[in-house]
Each structure stands twice: as structure tokens, then as C-alpha cells.
Known about the structure:
- There is one protein chain.
- The protein is an alpha+beta fold.
- The protein has a domain at 12-233 and 330-396: Antithrombin, Chain I, domain 2, CATH 3.30.497.10.
- 28% of the residues lie in helices and 31% in strands.
- It contains ten helices and 15 strands.
- The protein has helices spanning 12-26, 55-77, 87-98, 103-112, 119-133, 167-177, 190-204, 298-303, 307-315, 338-344, and strands at 43-44, 137-140, 146-160, 181-184, 220-233, 244-249, 255-273, 276-282, 289-295, 318-327, 329-336, 366-379, 383-396, 413-418, 425-431.
- Helix 1 packs parallel to helix 2 and helix 2 (55-77) crosses helix 5.
- The termini are far apart.
Amino acid sequence: MSRQIDRIGGWRAERGRLRGLGALALVGLIVSGCAGQAAAMAEATSSATRVPGSPAGAAQAAAAIDAFGFDFYDATLASGGNAVVSPASIVLALSMAQVGAAGETAAQMDKVLHSAVGSGGGNGINSLDLALAGLSGTFKDVTGTGRQVTLRIANAPFAQRGLQLQSPYLDTLATKYGAGLRLADFQNDPSGACRLIDGWVSDQTEGRIPDLLDSLDPATRLVLVNAIYMKAPWQTPFDKLATQTSPFTRPDGSQVSVPMMGQSLAGGLYASGSGWQAAQLPYLGGSLAMTIVVPDDLASFEETLDADRFAQITSALQSVDLDLSLPRFKIGTKSDLSASLSSMGMPLAFDRDQADFSGITTQERLYIAKVIHQADISVDENGTEATAATAVVMAAASGVPTASVTLHVDRPFLFAVRDTDTGAILFLGRVVDPSA
């Protein structure tokens, strides 16, 4: 969804409950490719129109994304190096597959995603998507100058030409994700399809993610893509003249000198508890914010970190006069999430023999071949620019992994000329001496 929509009346009271999500899901949790310009393509869309959202649905989806985010953090990121992910992007992309899953495959995905799809086949996600779209706009800063806050969320399914998708699935994509079907030829031109998708992602992320996919296999039949782009100035910018080089202590106790931003905030939001301190920095307009949690011991803190504990921290934030120092930072990560998601409790979706996505198509049996996620974030004195993209690559289970082979026909051989449709052999013979 790349367009802005009017703010939805009556939702302002719900904004406070969504602000934690803005900091958590969209700017990170603490958080030779095939790039090219998109080629001209045909597009098929459902005749169904997008349904309205609801505050309750948005809150339900936000809670599910938060819960998934901390599960994913614990399973994948804890005690590692620098990292950033977008739980919102991952869940949005996966949920486009989940609404077409059936049986135990659907049950496993629903559990891992904490029922993010919600009742009505995705209306929770739809409600949140619509609510977040209303956060973009022009706001006046402390000097009275109008400045832009941009939050763009877009979903795009790319399907193999000729693949017959179920009509209810196409309707769900249109009504709950605002997404029309885009067509590609993975079978005959996987590189071209890869360039097509990468071009779309690059456009949606202002060029910050130009190479999401490294390659695609001819067995690919459907790629479900989500992209998020955010650029927001701080409500109170840091004074660049106040930035000084200061030591930063790493987990092993060693120190490194970094540019440290500083500011004094009257009425800044702050909380502290046993072994941790936290602060929240609002972006211009007040609807988005970055929550920062500083543990005394990161490793031990991560052992007890989940969505409930994070909610307790954010609910404890109070207005104080805050003297804040924060390093400038820029982080980017890219990985295939298949193994992590499988270990989190949804292995069937990745099992080529048992995955059930019959709600998407019955023409071929599909499974999730890989889930590619990339996210980056830049934080400086002016504000934050962050992007994320997730591609759920679905392949035909009947497809055979490609391999490189060499065949030298240098000895006697048989041949058959046959009709591959019926199997009828039209000519049959052998060659023992090609020079005769």
C-alpha cells in the first residue's frame, strides 16, 4: 500500500496503543544480486474492493506482531552482533501465504504468527495496515517549519504466468492486503522475474534495498513480497554541535570510540527497573517513536525478554527531565529465515512433501522454498530512516532442484523419438558408429 489514505476518524484514541508497535516493528527491535529496473508486466486483479478496518483488529494484529517479534529475537538474534529486523514486514509477507494454507500447515503458521491474520481471513492485518497508512503527513517542528514524516507499506504477490490461483485467495489479497496479482515467468526466465521483483522492492524502499533476491529457481511459482519504508525526523532534533566522540563499552568489556549525540529533554519519557533503564524518543507528529532499553547485562536481560515484559517497560515510561546520550548508528542485515521459522514451530510450510497451500492453488502443490528478509536503519541527529523487505518464495513441490551435469555421448547409444503427451514412441533406434 504505497498511497496515503485519510486518517480514520475515531482512531486517534487507539494511537497510543500502536505507538509501541511503531518503534518496535518498523524501526527494529532495539532492530552479485539480480537487481534491475522492473520490466513491463501484465497485472491481474480481483474485482473485490478493500474492506474497512477496525481499531480492535489493528490492536490484535499489533499484539501478534510484537509477540512474534520477540519470539524471533529470542530464536535468532539474542546474544549476537548488530542486527535489525522488521517483524511487521516478516509477518505481513508470511500472512499472505498463511491465508492460503490449510490443515496442519495453517495451524503451525497460525501459532508461530500468533494468529496475526485474525478473524475474517486477514482483517486484523488489514486494519493495522490501514491505521499505519494514516501516520504519514507533514508536521510542524519546533521552529514552525513543515517537515515530512513518511511511512510506506506495500504488498505485492508475483505469480507464474498460467498458474491458476483460487478465486477466494485473490479476493483476500485484494480486500485485506490491497494487492493485485503481478505476473512473471519464473519457469522460462527466472533472472528476469528476479529483476522484476527487485525493481519493485527498490522502488518501494527509495533504492535502499536494490538486491533483495540473489536468484530464483525455475520451480518458483509464487513470490509474496512486503516492503516497508520509513523516514521520520525527531520531534526534538539533536544538536549536531553537541555530538562528541565518546567511549562505548562492548559486551566483552572492550571499548570503542563512537560519535555520541546528546540532548536535554524537558518532559522526556523514561523508566527504570531492576537491571535496566529505558527511554522513548518521539518522531515528529508524535505517532511514531523509538523505544530504547539499556540493560546492565544484555545477555541476562535477553533471557527474560518477551512481548509482555516489553509492554511492562513501555507502560512504565514517565515524563522526566532527561539528559540523553545516544550513539549514531547504521545497521543492515539480510538472511534467509527458513531455518529459524521452521525451528520456531512451522516446519510443514517448508516441507516439499507435506506442505498444504491448497487455498492458493490446486494446480500444483506449493511449499515455501525460502523467506528472504532484509532490513536496515540509520539513526542520526535529524531522525531515522529505515527500510525492510521480505519475500516468501513458494515453489512447486514437484520441481527437482537444479544441478550441473556433464554428459559425453562417446559410446554406443539408443534413441527414441516420442510424443511426450501420450508417451507414444514414433521412432526408436540405436547408434553404434556415427561415422558409418
